[in-house]
Specification:
Blueprint (H helix, E strand, L loop, with lengths): L20 H10 L2 H46 L4 H27 L4 H17 L1 H16 L7 E4 L2 E8 L3 E5 L5 E5 H6 L3 E2 L5 E10 L5 H13 L24 H4 L9 H5 L3 H22 L8 E7 L4 E10 L3 H18 L18
Antiparallel strand pairs: 1-2, 1-5, 2-3, 3-4, 6-8, 7-8
Helix pairs in contact: 2-3
Length: about 375
């Protein structure tokens, strides 16, 4: 069996062998001027070589940082990320990359970087503890950006507030209520709490509860409502799948593709990735095929309008009316048919009862 060589354990250097300043001065005093000049020349040459390498690495690193900055900028612009968030992300990336580059250059020159890293690490811990809530909102903003539970223009309900999303910033989201109040909600709570996004789906179901008097013809009320729905193009007649719009064709160009990011008229993205348009066309074709396959596998659900008796209340026969429409026409359909039903039912001899109580008094003897 082959024996492994034993490792030699070096003895610790005694402290008295470490030269002090006086010993160094005595040693230099014994050297001649030529020997001192040769040592200084060698050290200067070594320092100059390291300095030249450091300068070269700095300019190469600066070029790489600028390229990464431009690539990230192109990606954020094409994804229509909020401008304030885009500026913050670009600044953060640039600061981090330049910090790494400077530490690398300092190490190449020969300066000890462990002290710098220790100082920055301790400062980072202190800042993180002091700004724990702010950092939570920052992390929430990053999650919202990546997961996209909502976007600008969506109507959401969250944290006890509801309104249309106006801005998605790095630390908070601004929504406008129906009466045009600006509500600022921290992103930390939005990323961990529940959000009701009314604009997420393309279609919504509208529901009314209408009461008619006892003795009125239910079939007449049902036929009147269904005939109104049949004449309205906003109402889904049977299947939602028939109303879904196909994906954009190969010859169509979106607004993002038309947008120009440089003065030369050629987008930065296409200068970096010249074959991006061809790849995007192939990707759109693949998405269209996969979408068609998925829709073919999902059984269609009948979304026809319905009118049913929901309850025999104390003073009325309650009818529940359900119809499907696109999300953007939800409220217009809801309010329009409130008014139409109120106007049409009396013409058909149908009345809307109000709560009433019959009081029977006994006859006096």
């Amino acid at each position: 069996m082959m024996k492994l060589p034993l490792l030699q354990v070096t003895q610790p250097i005694p402290t008295d062998s470490i030269p002090d300043k006086e010993a160094v001065i005595r040693e230099l005093s014994t050297l001649s001027f030529d020997e001192i000049a040769n040592r200084l020349a060698n050290q200067l040459i070594d320092f100059a070589v390291h300095l030249a390498i450091a300068i070269l690495v700095f300019y190469i690193g600066k070029f790489i940082v600028n390229k990464i900055h431009k690539i990230v900028l192109a990606i954020l612009l094409r994804r229509n990320v909020d401008k304030s968030l885009t500026t913050f992300v670009l600044s953060l990336i640039k600061i981090v990359l330049y910090f790494i580059l400077i530490v690398t250059v300092i190490g190449i020159i020969g300066i000890e970087t462990s002290s710098f890293l220790a100082i920055f690490a301790s400062a980072g811990v202190a800042i993180g503890i002091a700004l724990s809530g702010t950092l939570q909102n920052f992390a929430g903003g990053v999650l919202i950006l990546l997961l996209k539970p909502y976007k600008i223009g969506d109507y959401i309900e969250a944290q006890g507030h509801s309104g249309t999303v106006r801005e998605i910033q790095i630390f908070h989201t601004i929504i406008n209520t129906a009466d045009n109040k600006s509500i600022i909600i921290p992103n930390g709570g939005l990323s961990t709490g529940s959000i009701n996004n009314a604009s997420k789906e393309d279609f919504r179901r509208v529901e009314w509860t209408i009461g008619i008097s006892y003795g009125d013809d239910v079939d007449k009320a049902r036929n009147a409502i269904l005939s109104m729905f049949a004449k309205d193009d906003r109402i889904i007649k049977r299947y939602i799948e028939d109303e879904l719009l196909p994906l954009k064709g190969n010859n169509e160009t979106s607004d993002e593709d038309r947008e120009e990011y440089t003065e030369s008229g050629k987008s930065l993205w296409r200068r970096i990735f010249p074959r991006h348009s061809k790849v995007k066309t192939s990707l759109n074709e693949w998405k269209a095929n996969e979408r068609a396959k998925t829709l073919a596998m999902i059984p269609k659900v009948d979304r026809s309008p319905s009118v049913n008796v929901s309850a025999l209340a104390d003073s009325s026969v309650n009818l529940v009316i359900r119809a499907w429409t696109r999300s953007e026409t939800f409220w217009s359909v809801y309010y329009d048919y409130n008014e139409k039903i109120y106007k049409e039912f009396p013409k058909l001899g149908l009345s809307f009862p109000f709560p009433q109580m019959d009081i029977h008094l006994p006859e006096r003897q």
